[in-house]
Amino acid sequence: MYYGSMATESPDTHRELVELRRQINYWRAQHTRAVERQAIWKEKARQLKQMVRQQEAQITELIQQNETLTQQIQALKAKVAQLQQQLFGRKSEQTKDLVPENHDGDQEACNASEATSESKNNRGKQPGSKGYGRRRRSGLPTEEILHELPKAEQCCPVCGKPFSVFPGSEDSEEIHWEVRLVRRIHKRTRYRPTTGLRSRRSDSLLSMGICG
Q1: Percent share of the chain, pLDDT over 90
Q2: Could you tell me if residue 154 is inside a domain?
Q3: What Pfam families does this protein's entry cite (predicted)?
Q4: What is the dihedral of CA 22, 23, 25, 26, to 10 degrees?
Q5: pLDDT confidence of 4, banded at 50, 70, 90?
Q6: Closest to 184 (Cα-Cα) out of 149, 140, 148
Q7: Alpha helices in the chain (DSSP H)
Q8: Is residue 92 part of a domain?
Q9: 8 Å CB contact between 164 and 194
């Protein structure tokens, strides 16, 4: 009987049966994947809900801390105001005790005395005081610079004979600012004529290399 039914099955019926089986397998696989995706999204939703609960707990804790800090700040402000009132209240009471209100002349004298005392206590140089003047800063590092006349000027312009070096030097100082403060001593070589020729201006011009 079974073989007879298979023998009588038409080709169209066989194709429909194959197509139905293929669709069954396809939708079964789709359902399996959908169930897996649903499980994944459920797990993610559970994790997000847990994070939301944790953040809500943190927000509640921060709000409580903020309220506590606000109360502490208000208490500290009240304490500061109380201390300021005590401090300045004492000063005003002392001022009233020192300066009675019913003595106008004494009040003016006291104000003038306070103004004079304040002007004397100002820092810095007071008007009308003596100036400081220039000071020789011998404590600075010293650098000596030797100045010599050019070769063409180391001879007498009258007779043409060379000068001889005169003992000592003509010194001058300057404060030269570079990276550090240095006290420079300029030493200019002094000369004198080697002959007996002298003039009235020779003594004053020897240091300049001119004898007359």
Answers
A1: 27
A2: yes
A3: LZ_Tnp_IS66
A4: 120
A5: very low
A6: 140
A7: 2-7, 11-98, 104-120, 202-205
A8: yes
A9: yes
